Amino acid sequence: MSSGVNQNAALSAALQPGSRVFVAGLTGESALLLDELSAAPERAAGVEFTSVQLPGVDRADFLALHPQSRLQGFFMTPAIRSGLVDGRATLQPLDYNGIARFLREADPFDTVIAQFTPPDADGWCSPGLTADFTPIVWKQARRKVAHLNPRLPRVRSSFRIHVSEFDQIVETEAPLLAVAEAKIDPVSQRIGEHAATLIQDGDTLQFGLGSVISAVAASLHGHRKLRIHSGMIAGFAGGMWQSGCLDPGADIVTGVIFGEPEFYETLVPDMPIRLEDVRHTHSTAVLTGMRRLVGVNSAVEVDLFGQVNSERSDGRLQAGAGGLPAFAIGAQAATDSRLLICLPSTARRGTVSRIVPAIDGRGLCTVPRYLADAVITEYGVAQLRGRSLTERAQALIAVAHPDHRKTLTAAWGEYLRQI
């Protein structure tokens, strides 16, 4: 350990007005840092925080700490939404590969703060549950601050830091960010069962998050030799591991691990997980070079042309593009690969169809029609790849809710008359 390392100061001690600070988000979020800043909010005055936060996952609200703090983010979170109104927040509209490039090309951060495990016998610290974006900014940061948290599981990672590299350390136990497993309802279960018919033993899977995704994973327990290469995994991966459907000789490659304390404590240490950053998990070269890659993702809506909106609902941004575009491109180019878009047929208790005539000004196109493959609702599978324009529309109408099929058919007829 270098003699300059301060093991007693607070994590937030290095924050100064005008400084640019990258803070690890998701399950890399440090509860200790948040507690410190809540107790001494003046430390956030004049600081610009940058973090990759997901709505409904992260609990940090850096703008609520002090009226002079600022926030740069990449997903529409409640903090970003309020900060855009008063000019204190910046939202970068990028997918995961775009975020990686943005961070790589940005000026070095004054400080980076992240969680790690305490050092092993040789002095190496693991990032524990998250290695998605922090490695991209780490080397260039002027000051490197570590919360060494003994509760973090020691997971293999291409990103590991020797304890001598830290400029400042605080070692103490703190709760890990818990993400409850999404509950599977009957509609999600039927979607999962349909999706499972398109997945073969030996396929490599990428997963998004949500109840529909959990249902797909649960429907695969009878499969064998499945592999995972994903930007994130959640507690459902533990169920897959216990069921025996995952290949025991293959690494589970991911950038982030989500779950509840029991999952972190009991299953994660025993699973063959390998953490990689976004430059590997979402690399076009890596993904297009794979065989039998199957992306499993949810969406807000899909239109009759095959365009997918996973970001905007009723005119309001709800999230961001995330990793979906990268895996859509990978599934298009990789040998024998698929992109499965899984969503309930309706919203608002059946009053709104999620199969829509066309994505309009209240939506956003996250995946363009030329990357469309299979769309799955509780009513079945719409196979779009290789289908003509009209065949696509017909297939999508067939998996829409019966109450909305007549309206969708009429809308498509009108489109044809206008072409």
Q: How would you characterize the overall build of this protein?
A:
- This protein has 419 residues and is α/β, with parallel strands linked by helices.
- The chain folds into 2 domains: 11-171, Glutaconate Coenzyme A-transferase, CATH 3.40.1080; 186-418, Acetyl-CoA hydrolase/transferase C-terminal domain (Glutaconate Coenzyme A-transferase, 3-Layer(aba) Sandwich), CATH 3.40.1080.
- It has helices at 31-39, 78-86, 96-105, 134-138, 186-196, 211-218, 235-243, 261-267, 278-281, 284-288, 324-333, 389-399, 402-418; strands spanning 20-23, 48-50, 70-73, 89-91, 111-116, 124-125, 143-148, 156-157, 161-162, 168-171, 204-207, 227-233, 252-257, 273-275, 293-298, 301-303, 308-309, 312-313, 316-317, 338-342, 346-347, 352-353, 355-356, 374-377, 380-383.
- The strands form 6 sheets. The protein has a 9-stranded mixed sheet. A 7-stranded parallel sheet has the order 4-3-2-1-5-7-10.
- Helix 5 (186-196) packs across helix 6 (211-218) and helix 12 (389-399) packs antiparallel against helix 13 (402-418).
- The termini are far apart.
- The model has no long low-confidence stretch (mean pLDDT 95).
Query: CATH-wise, what's the superfamily of the largest domain?
Result: Acetyl-CoA hydrolase/transferase C-terminal domain
Give the class from helix and strand content and strand pairing: alpha/beta
Q: Which percent range fits the helix content? A: 25-40%
Number of strands: 25
Radius of gyration (Å):
22 Å
Average residue pLDDT: 95
**Share in β-strands:** 15-25%
Second CATH tier, the architecture of the largest domain? 3-Layer(aba) Sandwich
Overall structural domain count? 2
Distance between the termini: 69 Å
Order of adjacent strands in the largest pleated sheet: 8-14-13-12-11-15-20-24-25
**Are there runs of 5+ residues with pLDDT below 50, and where?**
none
- Quickly name the level 1 CATH class of the largest domain: Alpha Beta
General shape: globular
The biggest beta sheet is recorded as:
9 strands, mixed
How many helices? The count is: 13
Which fold does the CATH topology of the largest domain refer to?
A: Glutaconate Coenzyme A-transferase
